[in-house]
Every structure is written in structure tokens, then in C-alpha cells.
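Quarterly update, task 2.4: zinc ion-bound model.
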Amino acid sequence: MKQKVFCAFCSLPQKIYTKKHVHFFELILFAGVGAILTHLIWQDFHIVGPIVFCVLAMSAETVHRLRWRASVKCKHCGFDPLLYKQSPEEAAQTVKAFLDRRKEDPLYLLKPQPQIKPIIKKVKDYKPSSVSKDIQL
Ligand SMILES: [Zn+2]
């Protein structure tokens, strides 16, 4: 299941997966698959059934985590909020590298462009330079 969200950096809409982990019903399904498989082959309980259950559960959990992690990263600007929480400088470098690559790629020309506002720092105690004082009209 996907949810529509807006990127915190470029404000463009994107869809992310909301499901991060395997649900209980999927675990029941995997246990049923293991039980049916062992029943069809050995006609009794066999140790392969729990092994099949564990392999299916671990692979499904891995797929869910990787899919969710890949969907969190913005496809328009490359902003990764999880990386930003750990290291803002590294996230900024990642976005800059992504935008440089995107600028060169012709496939991105017709896609929606990120609406990145420039960062304007307010300087306190700003005094005009002496050059502007000397100008007289
Ligand atoms: Zn973005």
C-alpha cells in the first residue's frame, strides 16, 4: 500500500510504501505453505516445514524493508530523510550529486522539476561598504 506524501526538500508529491514489516497474516500464510509442502512430500511433519517458513518470512521481511527504504528517497531530487536525520551534510552532498546527474540526463527534461527555494541568510548588523558612501549624485 502506498501513501502520497510531499518531499521535505523539493515539495513535489511522491508515493511511499507504508508497510515496513511482514504482517501477522503473511506469517500464517508462510506457515501454511510450509505445512502443505511437507505434507505433500512426506505426508507427515518434517523439519523442512519450519525451515521453509523461516526462509519465506526472512525473505519477505527483507523485501519489505528494502522496498520501503527505496521508496522513502525522493525520486525528483534524491533527498533521503533518513540519511538527513543521521548526517545532514552527507544528505546535502547526495542531493547535490543527484541534481548534477539529473541535469545531464535528457530523460528528466520533461519530468516535474524540483521547486527548491534558495537559502537566503539574513545578515545582522549589515553596514554598507565605504564605496557606496562615497558615491554622490
Ligand atoms: Zn524531493
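Highlight for this quarter: The CA atoms of residues 28 and 53 lie 9 Å apart.
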